[in-house]
Amino acid sequence: MGGEKVWLSRCGGYASEELLRQMEEAFTALGVWEEIRPGMKVVLKPNLVMSSKPEAAIATHPALVAAVGKCVQKAGGEVLIAESPGGPYTPAAMKAIFRGCGYTDMAKDCGFALYTECKSREVTLPRAQRCRQLSVAEPFLTRDYLIDLCKLKTHGMVGFSGAVKNLFGAVPGLQKPELHCRFPEKQPFSEMLVDLCDFLQPDLCIMDGILAMEGNGPTGGQPRKMGVLGASKSPYALDVCGASLIGMKPESVLMLKEANRRGLGPLSPEECQLVKEPVAPLAQPDFVKAKASSTDFIDRLPSFLRPAAKKIATPTPKIRKKECVGCGRCAESCPQHTIQIREGKAVIDYKNCIRCFCCHEMCPKHVIDIRRWSVLHF
């Protein structure tokens, strides 16, 4: 553990020539050119949680994916872009996501394949400590080389979204709510994410931090110019540096703390081998975090107070009724089926809500907020 190489670089925008130069440099710094051989099937896994324009900072920018794919082609590899966002995992849904995120035209121009067959199978995770069985989309099981292309974002449930969280997209769409239901609390959910990441073992991880997302990520926040690209063979090391870039202590990110406990990755940038830029000059400590905060302080209360305190202090999704269009995406994504559409508006049954924030994440109009009580902040 420790000593994993992390390449960090300043990058002012998404100009194709500059991105290609930077990615070629990253491939050289991390020894990737020697690993990708002619004829290899190389799967690129971007973050395409929902259909969105690149300037919204929700999805991995298609220009960065194009640059990475061109490097793969230069090494002789065959590029396949695969993802499974929230909602139904069907050919029609995937084609719509690729088109809406600007990937259809990009892939055509670059000669990349887009995976739309939507096949998956159940697998056993032999080293898992929380979740031993789940389904994984076929390309992630049959690839020769996997490149995890994440977006630097906050996250309402787990706080931080980077390389580890991005691999949750390998799970077919509608099984994601099932896993949220099986693991509704942050700690077991984070353990499941580490189980999955340890099983998939990406060969290379690249972080799009040029335009990041602050606030109520991963879909309802605001774009923020960070001007940073990152890359590493270790998803955990890359995320430790990514979290530090946005002013988060890596030990506060439960999946990174869990990975460190298992001996899979570091817990501070100082344990990493930074091969270009250090973290501190690139960091923006005033980066706005997601509103859903930890309620760990409840564990320090007398036992008879904990149930009531938890009910009050736990962040809750709140629908802005006047702006809700009644599309039903929130109800479709809810693992507990606690949301109904009544008179053209979404209504949440809070008695059965597990606060997974899938509704907040999947709302295409971004009208579901995360409400946090402030009376217990002490």
Describe this structure in words.
There is one protein chain. The chain has 378 residues and is of the alpha/beta class. It folds into two domains: 5-282, LarA, N-terminal domain (Rossmann fold); 296-371, Alpha-Beta Plaits (2-Layer Sandwich), CATH 3.30.70. It is built from 13 helices and 15 strands. Strands 1, 2, 3, 4, 7, 8, 9, 10 and 11 form a nine-stranded mixed sheet that branches. Strands 5-6 form a two-stranded antiparallel sheet. Strands 12-15 form a two-stranded antiparallel sheet. Helix 8 (186-200) crosses helix 10 (254-261). The protein is globular and about 55 Å long.
State the gist of this model.
The chain has 13 helices and 15 strands.
Task: Provide the descriptors you would attach to this structure in a database record.
22% strand; alpha/beta; two-stranded antiparallel sheet; Rossmann fold; 30% helix; single chain; 378 residues
Topology:
Elements lengths: L4 E6 L5 H15 L10 E6 L15 H13 L3 E4 L9 H10 L2 H8 L2 E2 L5 E5 L8 E5 H5 L2 E11 L3 E3 L1 H4 L8 H8 L3 H15 L3 E11 L7 E11 L2 H11 L8 H8 L11 E2 L31 H8 L2 E4 L9 H5 L5 E4 L2 E4 L9 H5 L5 E4 L7
Parallel strand pairs: 1-11, 2-3, 2-7, 3-4, 7-9
Antiparallel strand pairs: 1-10, 5-6, 7-8, 9-10, 12-15, 13-14
Number of strands: 15
Number of helices: 13
- Give the overall average pLDDT: 92
| Biggest beta sheet attributes | 9 strands, mixed
Number of domains: 2
- CATH T-level fold name of the largest domain: Rossmann fold
Distance between the termini: 36 Å
Q: Rounded to an integer, what's the Rg over CA atoms?
A: 20 Å
Structural class: alpha/beta
CATH class of the largest domain: Alpha Beta
CATH architecture descriptor text of the largest domain:
3-Layer(aba) Sandwich
CATH superfamily of the largest domain: LarA, N-terminal domain
Name the beta content range.
15-25%
Oligomer: single chain
Q: What portion of residues is helical?
A: 25-40%
